[in-house]
Amino acid sequence: MRLKTKLVLAITGLVFLVVFTLSWIFLGQLVRQRMAQAYSSNDMVAHQIALATQRTSDTIRVVDANDPTALRAAVAKALRSDPALISLLDSAIRYSPTIFDVTIADSEGRGLLSTDPTNLDHLVPQRPEYEELESGGLLRLLEVVFGPPRVYNLTLPLERRFEPFATVRVGVRTTFLRFVVEPWLIAALTYTGVAIICSLIFAAFLANLALKPLEQISARLDALALAEAEGAGEASPALGAGGRGGDAVVLVSNKIERIGRRMRNVEEVFSALKENLDQIMTNLQDGILLYTHDARAVLVSDSVERFLGISRAQILGAKLHEVFSRNTRLGRLVRESFDAKMALVQEEITTETGRHVEISLDFIHDDRAVYPQETLGALLTLHDLESVREIESDLELSRRLAAIGRLTAGVGHEVKNPINAIVVHLELLRNKLGGSDIKAMRHLEIIESEIQRLDRVVQTLVDFSRPVELQLKEQDLRRVVSAVLMLASAELETRNVHVQSDLPDRAVMAKVDADLLKQALLNVVLNGAQAMAEGGKLEVRLAEDGRMALLSVHDQGGGIPSDVRDKIFDLYFTTKKDGSGIGLAMTYRIVELHNGSIEVESDATNGTTFILRFPLNTFQESRARGYLMPDGSTSAGSIVAKEPRG
Questions:
Q1: Which SS3 state, helix, strand or coil, does residue 228 take?
Q2: 568 phi and psi, to 5 degrees?
Q3: Cβ-based neighbours of 85, under 8 Å, separated by 6 or more
Q4: Which range, of 161-170, 224-233, 452-461, averages the lowest pLDDT?
Q5: Number of other residues whose CB lies within 10 A of the CB of residue 516
Q6: What is the pLDDT of residues 174-210, one digit of tens each?
Q7: Kind and range of the H or E element at 502?
Q8: Which terminus of the chain has fewer CB atoms gathered within 10 Å of its CB, N or C?
Q9: What is the DSSP letter of 121?
């Protein structure tokens, strides 16, 4: 069977089901309505008979109320001798189309007066009540009405002096109900059948009419495939199984499937390109915004948040005038240039916060457009000049450290050999003197002590220049900070320093060398404690700042003198009497190896804050392989010494 035929049959069947359901409901309501009308008319007859019976019974005067038999005989005699009541029963049988018989029975169910002589003075046969018919469904009603003949009672009780003494029973025969319902039912079935047939014909016609456009769709798909094949230089595609004479639905389905496969291939390529573009946009330092012709942002780099202070999600889809305000210099320049369709080429501007930004606005034109001034969109680039200067400064510092590293490595190697030779000859000289000259021996001990001190300095220099192999593992930085504070707790207590730590509730995961990181942080913590000679509060805080972990250590010391700000991370530089000048230099190197950065904020009144930043779960794999040298062979970290201290 052709798919088109199946669709026509399915639509036709659905219409038939709807029409049949509505018709069934209509027939049910119709039958129930006729049954209710029959009940109402018979109930009215029963009440008329009950009223007449009540009047007749009220005429009985001389009766012994304590003798039920005498009372029944009197009531039966009165009812049977009442011509009006007998006439009422006869008229009910003669003129009502559904009443089979009428019986007035006593409280024991024996007939007092009945249109059926066999019921007189005998127990009236038990019959189902008419109310049962109204509670049944349509099938039940049809089964009763058109099934075997049965009689249903419509019973009405009578009272005498507030006590039941008789009942009026009106018998309704189902064959009589059928005579009443059947004409209405036949007419309803006729109309319903005609409605179903017309609905089926209309549904079939409508289904064929609705499926007619499939041929046009098939032709358009052929034209689309042909144009695509010609554009790609391929042969014309076949029409598919069955050719044009086959099932139209199958042909269209096959063609849509072929186009769908091509679209999926294109979508995969597009997804790959989009993923690559997102990675590129994420790593860009410049802010990039791509706008459509109606000034709506469709592409936004992550760096834009640093320039505008608005999240990337809020900018995407928003119009340019909703993002850039005329109340700012940057927003006013961008809006005026965009409205005037005037391009900006590396326009420098200083924002209200003193930030230097370079702006470029390029409009994208369609060469095939009728009007040259029409644009497809615009590309806005925001370039941070301060970041460029910081990067240049960091590169210069890295080159300087690299030169220092090469120099220290060479000096350490060249000095180590003469020191070893001096130690050997010093020992030979001591043996030759044999301890005879006490003054000479004292000078020899001084020379030996100084040589040992010089050897320690050279060894420290060599160790600092030696390559370090990082052992990177996923670490919770909260555990690292807690371990450092516990390790330094003894010395902090002796210096009367109280530590206030602020750690987040959830884990802050980063791939770091825990031992080296503890060493770097311990140097900063001890340095802060030593800066507070009279004791004080040392605040240690760990937080997340975007994709970086931010670890800050704030002391309440006297700050860093301005003349030593640029030297605090230099090897062997120190302002302390017993300092070695190695701690902060080693801290800087460890942070650098982790691709992080150090910021120092200091003044004489608020103390000093060291801020260490580390990437969260991201690290350059090139820095994790092999040995890492401080000579600039790998990308260096960054350092910002705003108010440094030694």
A1: helix
A2: -65, -25
A3: 49, 52, 53, 56, 79, 113
A4: 224-233
A5: 20
A6: 776 677 677 777 777 787 778 778 877 776 777 677 7
A7: strand 497-502
A8: N
A9: T
As a residue count, the chain comes to 646
Where does 82-190 show beta strands of DSSP type E? 99-106, 111-114, 151-160, 163-173
Give pTM, 2 decimals. Answer: 0.35
Place of tokens 């590169």: 395
Residues 569, 583: contact at Cβ < 8 Å?
A: no
The answer to whether the CB of 536 falls within 8 A of the CB of 522 is: no
Please list the residues that pair with 468 across neighbouring strands. 628
Tokens (6 digits) for 509? 């995961």
d(CA 297, CA 304) in angstroms, rounded, equals 12
The pair of structure tokens assigned to 401 is: 């450290």
Tell me whether residue 41 is exposed, middle or buried, using C-beta atoms within 10 angstroms of its C-beta: 0 to 12, 13 to 18, 19 or more.
middle
Contacts of 313 (CB under 8 A, 6+ apart): none
Q: Decide: 128 and 153 in contact? Cβ < 8 Å.
A: yes
Q: Residue 561's pLDDT band (boundaries 50, 70, 90)?
A: confident
Q: Which is nearest to 383 in space by CA: 360, 354, 352, 350?
A: 360
How many Å apart are CA 590 and CA 592, to the nearest integer?
Answer: 5
CA 68 to the chain's CA centroid? 85
Task: State the Cα–Cα distance between residues 260 and 64, nearest whole angstrom.
Answer: 101
- Of 45, 102, 98, 97, nearest to 79 by C-alpha is 102
Query: Which phi and psi angles does 543 have, rounded to 5°?
Result: -150, 170
Q: What is the pLDDT at residue 455?
A: 76
Q: Which residues contact 402 (CB under 8 A, 6 or more apart)?
A: 630, 631, 632, 633
Q: Which two tokens stand for residue 133?
A: 């018919």
Residue with tokens 């002796």: 494
Q: What type of residue sits at position 486?
A: M
SS (H, E, C) 556-615: CCCCCCHHHCCCCCCCCCCCCCCCCCCHHHHHHHHHHHCCCEEEEEEECCCEEEEEEEEE
Q: Are strands 111-114 and 99-106 parallel, antiparallel or unpaired?
A: antiparallel
Q: Is beta strand 344-350 parallel, antiparallel or unpaired with respect to 356-365?
A: antiparallel
**Residue 10, Ramachandran bin (φ over 0: left; ψ between -120 and 50: alpha; else beta):** alpha
Whole-number Å distance between alpha carbons of 133 and 146: 13
Task: Reply yes or no on whether the pLDDT at 246 is more than 60.
Answer: no
For the beta carbon of residue 178, count every other beta carbon within 10 angstroms: 17
CA 122 to chain centre: 81
Using alpha carbons, select from 197, 246, 199, 194 the residue that is nearest to residue 218.
Answer: 246
Question: What order do you get walking across the sheet with 163-173 strand by strand?
Answer: 111-114, 99-106, 163-173, 151-160
Backbone angles phi, psi at 129, to 5 degrees: -80, 150
**Is-contact 93 101, C-beta < 8 A?**
yes
Contact 466, 437 (CB under 8 A): no
For the chain, the distance separating the N- and C-terminal CA atoms, rounded to the nearest angstrom, is: 91
Residue 611's closest CA among 561, 539, 558, 507?
539
**Neighbouring-strand partners of residue 607:** 603
The answer to whether 581 touches 574, Cβ cutoff 8 Å, is yes
Alpha-carbon distances, residue 68 vs 108, 119, 124 (angstroms): 11, 20, 19
Predicted local confidence at residue 557, as pLDDT:
84
